[in-house]
Amino acid sequence: MNREHEILARDSERWQRRNLSRVTAIAVGLAALLLLLAGYLHGQESGPVVSVADGDTITVEINGKKERVRLIGVDAPEMDDSSPRVRCFAKAARLFAIDSLAGLTVKLEADPTQANRDRYGRLLRYVYWHNDLFNRFLIKKGFAREYTYDKPYRFQDDFKKAQKYAEESKWGLWDAHECR
Ligand SMILES: [Ca+2]
User: Fold this and answer.
1) CA-based angle 33:37:41, to the nearest 5?
2) How are beta strands 123-129 and 65-71 bridged, if at all?
3) Measuring CA to CA, how many Å separate 131 from each of 108, 126, 168?
4) What confidence score (pLDDT) does residue 25 get?
5) pLDDT < 50: residue spans in the chain
6) How deeply is 62 buried, as exposed, middle or buried, from its count of CB atoms within 10 A (0-12, 13-18, 19+)?
7) Cβ density class 113-122: b for 16+ within 10 Å, e for less
8) I need a labelling partner for 83 at 20 to 30 A (CA). Which of 9, 13, 42, 59 fits?
9) How far, in Å, from the CA of 78 to the mean position of ligand 1?
10) What is the maximal distance between C-alpha atoms in the chain?
11) Which of 1, 84, 146 is nearest to 138 (CA)?
12) 10 Å Cβ neighbour count for 146?
C-alpha cells in the first residue's frame, strides 16, 4: 500500500467509526425515548410518599410535584366518620399506611380500565411496595375493604380473594373485638 492509499484507508476508517458512533448515539437516544414513552403509556410513575391522609389516600411527590393518589380497588374507613368504631378503624389503617409508606419511594401504576383521576382530582393508582401491591396488602390485613368504583379493575378477583382471606382470619375490620 502506498502512502496515498494508506491515508485514504485511514480516513475511510475514521469516517466509518464516526458514523458508527453517531448511529449508536441516535439508537441510544431513541431507546431512551421509547422507554420514557412506554412508561408514560403504562402510566407508571414513582416517587417518595410525603404524607398519608388515610388508608386509601396518600400524597406522592412525582417529578417534584406533590400529587394526591387514591388507591384503586380499596376503601379504607373515613377519619371523620360519625361512628367512633369506624374512626378507630380509620386511624388504624392510616397509622399502618404511615408506618409502611412514609418516606419510602413507591412505584405507581395506572389501570387502563379506570380513569386517570377521580372527581376530586386524585390520581387513581396501584401502589407497589416491596414488590407487592400495597392496595391488596391493606385488604388482606383487614385495614380496608375491596372496593369497585364503577367498572371492574385489573386485580378485582385478586383483591376479592384477599378480603375473603381477611374475613376468614378475622383480621382488623373483620375482628368483632377490635375497636370496641
Ligand atoms: Ca375511604
Assistant:
1) 175
2) parallel
3) 11, 12, 25
4) 83
5) none
6) middle
7) ebeebeeeeb
8) 59
9) 5
10) 98
11) 146
12) 22
Cα 121 to Cα 105: distance, rounded to the nearest angstrom: 22
List, as ranges, residues with CB under 5 A of the ion ligand 1: 56, 75-76
Look at residue 11 in the predicted model and tell me its pLDDT.
Answer: 78
Cell representation of residue 117: 383521576
Q: From ligand 1's centre to the CA of 92, what distance in Å?
A: 13
User: Which string of DSSP letters, residue by residue, matches 107-166?
Assistant: EEE--TTS-SB-TTSPEEEEEEETTEEHHHHHHHTTSSEE---SS--TTHHHHHHHHHHH
Q: What local confidence, expressed as pLDDT, does residue 37 receive?
A: 67
Q: In Å, how far are 43, 83, 136, 173 from 76, measured between CA atoms?
A: 24, 14, 12, 10
Residue 77 contacts residue 87 (beta carbons within 8 Å): yes
84 Cα to the center of ligand 1, angstroms: 15
Query: Which amino acid belongs to residue 117?
Result: R
Q: What is the pLDDT of residue 100?
A: 97
Q: What are the grid coordinates assigned to 78, written together?
A: 373515613
Residue type (1 letter), 145: R
SS3 47: strand
